[in-house]
Automatic annotation (TrEMBL):
This is asparagine--tRNA ligase. PANTHER family: ASPARAGINE--TRNA LIGASE, MITOCHONDRIAL-RELATED, ASPARTYL/LYSYL-TRNA SYNTHETASE. Belongs to the class-II aminoacyl-tRNA synthetase family. Residues 1-10 have a biased composition (Polar residues). One of its GO terms (biological process) is asparaginyl-tRNA aminoacylation. PROSITE patterns: AA_TRNA_LIGASE_II. Residues 1-22 are annotated as: Disordered. Its EC number is 6.1.1.22. The keyword Iron does not apply. Keywords: Aminoacyl-tRNA synthetase, ATP-binding, Ligase, Nucleotide-binding, Protein biosynthesis.
Length: 478
């Protein structure tokens, strides 16, 4: 069950005291800026201090730069927790009163940015091995009392309205780190498997899915009366920028196939767009897709690669984002780590479509394959029974479809017949058909919605929290 942002340790932010007056930035701020530019190479990330497995930094002077999470004042010291986004935890900085800028420190508020130089020492307190004893503290940027992230519970829905600030919360910061790790693991996996990375176009004239739910790209006048038309009253796109109808891509698959049929194995990883008027927690108008294409491959090869990929990226996230996943396991999905371990260790179940309909649901990843041809896309290869296609979906608990893939139809005659059946013009896809006309080979591929993968690995329920700036019907802020 998802929790409200702000109800976990380190997420509930304390009320900010009155804003600092003169002297809080001034010369100290200028010095901090100088230290933060020319001295950037010497900056020590909080993660290097808080997640060190040994003590190489003990007794060393470090420069820590980040944002204030909490501050406690005592008689001769102030204790300030600083977080720089590199990990879940913040580092405790002990600031003695004899620090020259202590008057500015006393007025520090939650959200202020600071630059601290000090020595790493063993911490006598609970919860951390090390802390920093400050020698110099500079306030880089003050944070006034109207800072939205105050000491109260903030729902994820509220945070979507301040998407520019929500990365400062534990949940969204952790999502961002996991997302980054998954992206890095994606490139690592395909490189190790011998795939080439292809940057497919965002503007296209092709509808890969044949659904017609595409965003149009045009420079024609916005005033209807000035739009050029043909004799039948339809829009004259010959006068548009590209000379024909153009759209934001719904998939990089067709471009991927062109290169797979020349270079062997390729993958694309980029933004895609669907003009679906859907307000569900699983759909976005703009989302990222991972789409590999493999030559000389069939549906079994497709499923083998997809399973290996998911296991690889999940393993990588568990290895490098341990504290973030523990946070999600504690506050969002108490079975998360157990579920991810199952995905990592156990073979995926594979079942034919009809058996899937007849059997109970599994509690692990399941490949469902050989779907009825009438409900799948035109480019999927017909099976010998004439009723099904060589298509598969990977279904995972809590998310549903994570991957959709198929063996592509490599036979020209069958492909052109299906285009007509799907009300597509073979002439518009002449270049796609050329792949079958000149040295055609069996090939297969799949698409994985990256935000759904992020949701699955983190346990976050709403896909709008798995991307920095979600785009959905009626929402294109920031």
């Amino acid at each position: 069950m998802a929790m409200s942002e702000g109800s976990s340790p380190g997420v509930t932010l304390p009320e900010a005291p009155a804003s600092a007056g003169e002297g809080a930035v001034g010369d100290a701020g200028a010095a901090a800026l100088a230290a933060g530019t020319g001295g950037r190479a010497k900056r020590t990330r909080v993660k290097a201090i808080m997640e060190a497995t040994d003590d190489p930094l003990l007794g060393k002077t470090v420069a820590v730069k980040g944002w204030v999470r909490t501050k406690r004042d005592q008689k001769a010291f102030s204790f300030v927790e600083i977080n720089d986004g590199s990990c879940m935890k913040g580092v405790q900085v002990v600031i003695p009163q004899d620090v020259p800028t202590y008057s500015a420190v006393e007025r520090l508020t939650t959200g202020a940015s600071v630059s601290v130089t000090g020595v790493v020492v063993e911490s006598p307190g609970k919860g951390q091995r090390f802390e920093v004893k400050a020698q110099e503290v500079h306030v880089v940027g003050e944070c006034p009392t109207e800072y939205p992230l105050q000491k109260k519970r903030h729902t994820l829905e509220f945070l979507r309205g301040i998407a520019h600030l929500r990365p400062r919360t534990n949940t969204i910061a952790a999502v961002a780190r996991v997302r980054s790790a998954l992206a890095q693991a994606t490139h690592d996996f395909f490189r190790e498997e011998g795939f080439l990375y292809l940057q497919s176009p965002i503007i296209t004239a092709s509808d890969c899915e044949g659904a017609g739910e595409m965003f149009r790209v045009t420079t024609l006048p916005s005033e209807v009366s000035k739009v050029p038309t043909l004799e039948d009253g339809s829009t004259d796109y010959s006068q548009d920028f590209f000379g024909k109808p153009a759209f934001l891509t719904v998939s990089g698959q067709l471009s991927g196939e062109t290169h797979a049929c020349a270079l062997g194995d390729v993958y694309t990883f980029g933004p895609t767009f669907r003009a679906e008027n859907s307000q569900t927690t699983r759909h976005l108008a703009e989302f990222w897709m991972i789409e590999p294409e493999m030559s000389f491959a069939d549906l079994r090869d497709d499923m083998d690669n997809a399973e290996a990929f998911v296991k690889h990226v999940v393993s990588h996230a568990m290895e490098v984002c341990g504290s973030d996943l523990e946070f999600f396991n504690k506050f969002y999905d108490k079975e998360l780590l157990q579920r991810l371990q199952r995905i990592k260790d156990k073979p995926f179940v594979r079942t034919e479509h009809e058996r899937w309909l007849a059997e109970t649901r599994y509690d692990t990843a399941v490949f469902v394959y050989d779907y009825p041809r009438d409900i799948k896309a035109f480019y999927m290869r017909d099976n010998e029974d004439g009723k099904t296609v060589a298509a598969m979906d990977l279904l995972v608990p809590g998310v549903g479809e994570l991957i959709g893939g198929s063996q592509r139809e490599e036979r020209l005659e069958q492909l052109e017949a299906k285009m007509v059946e799907f009300n597509l013009s073979p002439e518009d896809y002449w270049w796609y058909n050329d792949l079958r006309r000149y040295g055609s080979v069996p090939h297969a591929g799949y698409g994985l919605g990256f935000e759904r993968l992020v949701c699955y690995v983190t346990g976050v329920e709403n896909i709008r929290d798995a991307i920095a700036f979600p785009r959905s019907p009626g929402s294109a802020e920031f």
